[in-house]
Amino acid sequence: MAEVNLLARYPKSKRNVQARLVHKEDNRRIALQFGMEYFDGRREQGYGGYRYDGRWLPIAEDIVRHFGLKAGDRVLDVGCAKGFLVKDLLKSCPGLEIFGIDVSEYAVMNAEPEVIGRLHLGNAVSLPFPDKSFDAVLAINTVHNLDRAGCVQALREIERVSRGRSYIQVDAYRSPEERKIFEDWMLTAQTYAMPREWEEILAEAGYTGDYYWTILEIDPEWTIT
Ligand SMILES: C[S@@+](CC[C@H](N)C(=O)[O-])C[C@H]1O[C@@H](n2cnc3c(N)ncnc32)[C@H](O)[C@@H]1O
Fold this sequence. Notes:
By secondary structure, this protein is α/β, with parallel strands linked by helices. Helix content is 35%, strand content 13%. Helix 5 (84-92) links the parallel strand 1 (74-78) and strand 2. Helix 4 (57-67) crosses helix 5 (84-92) and helix 7 (148-161) packs across helix 9 (195-205). The chain is globular. The model has no long low-confidence stretch (mean pLDDT 94). Bound molecules: S-adenosylmethionine. Residues 34, 78-79, 81, 102-104, 107, 123-125, 140-142, 145-146 line the site of S-adenosylmethionine.
């Protein structure tokens, strides 16, 4: 188990935190349905347009290198959304047996054409796959959408279906200031904590894979109006 940032090459985006604070509870309720509004509706309710733009390609390359993936290896992306990472892993490593699973019917029904048939509808807390089915399992910004007990269960499921290699990334904060920014911005997270608290959750679940944190840092470039 190692703390390693496989999303180091993911681009930073500008965030209008103040706009999120208007009708926050309504926006959160809508976002938590993980439907059209969350992916392709207004920015206050989610992504504001979840469209493929190739930004996952460098991350896919880093994942392939980190795990030494090769054609024929079986990989699962838990919380795959429309399959952008699945598509870019296929590009980075042709012949990879890569699949995704997501709780959102909207995302799976609006998947990238290249990954149709590779994405399953399902929940991270109960992965519909036999033990040790995958050479590597990924779950990027997915597990924290469950409550604490759900996180533990999802981590156990990732551990169960993998053959020992996995990577998760979850929402975290390191200071009261980062926690405040995060709470103002986030819509769907149910569990978020300091890294050392997350490490306790990982240990409780018996998770042995790699991990890293999604931390909203205080960035002067953000549009906070
Ligand atoms: C923040 S998005 C991340 C999507 C993608 N992994 C990425 O990083 O762009 C969270 C994704 O997790 C999915 N999700 C939320 N709860 C889930 C659950 N219990 N099981 C599986 N997928 C879930 C959502 O539908 C959404 O696609």
